[in-house]
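Handout, page 2. Input:
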Amino acid sequence: MTDNKNSYRQVMKATSLFGGVQVFNILIRLIRSKVIALLIGPAGMGITTLLDSTLNLVNGLTNFGLDRSAVKDISLSNSNSDKEQVSKTVSILKKLVWLTITIGIIIMIVLSPLLSEIAFGNKNYTIHFIWISIALLFKQLSSSQLAILQGLRKLKSLAKANLLGNFIGLLITLPLYYYFRIDAIVPAIIIASFMSFLFTFFYSKNIPLIPIKISGKEAISEGKSMIHLGVMLSLSSMISLAVAYMLRIYISKYGGISEVGLYGAGFIILNSYVGIIFNAMGTDYFPRLAAISEEIVKIRKTVLEQALIAILLITPIIVLFLTFAPYIIILLYSTKFTPIVAMVTWGILGMIFKAVSWSMGYIIIAKGDSKVFIKTAIGFNSILLLVNILGYNYGGLEGLGISFFIYYIIHFIAIKIITYYRYNFYFEKGFYKIFIFTILLCVTAFMFSYISDEMLKYSLLGIVIIISTFYSYKELDKKLDIKKFITELYKRKK
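Output:
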């Protein structure tokens, strides 16, 4: 029983550490988004969204997925306490990343007129894409350094690098937006990526490693397994980014740049603000799962713990967002962005399913099952694009929210079937009792949010907030003894 509580506490320690960082990062994004919304409006946000999407697409196409596959190799070597192998893997990664950077920059510069044509329907933004190739350089360098910190589970250094990089980047870019408005978009993207690189480099350079010199040929030869898995991960990321990119282009064509900005704002809320739990947990979860990738009993236990913590933490967040969605959106952006309320409301409802499928999905990556991974990536993203286009055609932004909700349910069911038949993974029966109850809480809050009588609506939603918070606290207390957990954290910090 004590071992179980210690396992849950380990999950919560990582979550509390990176949860704090994520909250801080969200505040930074909130301020940045608020400034962009107020100073350059939905059209400016649409330009930013399309430039960022293109940058992420090219990065996903050219980084060979090394930022994730290296985490698996480093964490495996580290779990065996093989310092020499860890140092060798890190050296291979550092050598390979310069190859991916060169390919990425060449593609970005050579294809800049085509990228501008695809994104904006003209070549007016060619020079913008050439300039943000600099951001690609820093983005890939910082990703490789983060992979090293994550694989070695240097969580505090990883947290500090993330926090400081984003904070200093904000301090520098805010005055740019104030004085130069839309002209500040490209410099802000470059500066933000440079700050991330600067701090990841600072915290990773002090890691004690054995100096190992490796040539380019040796790096490619020795890093075949890393490259193979990485290419599969890269293809998956590229497919996801391509689908997101195509959807934005589709919305831009039929709804205009402002509509893209509105969609981008709603997407950020769903994936960054509400998705804080996933971002906070994933940092430590993947290395832990990769280290036990061949032991199915341990995998069942680890995934169960992760999934339970995820749904218990995210349920009160979902209920709160469903209750105050209109006010939260105005706070995050401005009154111009209220058209996304329905989209966000539907999308948030699906997050309870995403919390579980996200926990199970990491099994495929941790096992390095590249064939299954790429097949699921193609299948899921095809479904996502189809339901998103149908949703937008028939319901506009609200239709997109409904399509996200439907997709999250489909994804959960499919991942459950795949992991059961492929790896013999399943949850204990006790898990579904908690899962079903949290779903009922979220659905109840969703239904109450449509009541027209304001007094009745907020009274009922207030009751659901209290119930969901109390239930999550009670279940978490059973798993990890919250008072003892907080006491341990306090003593450690002191």
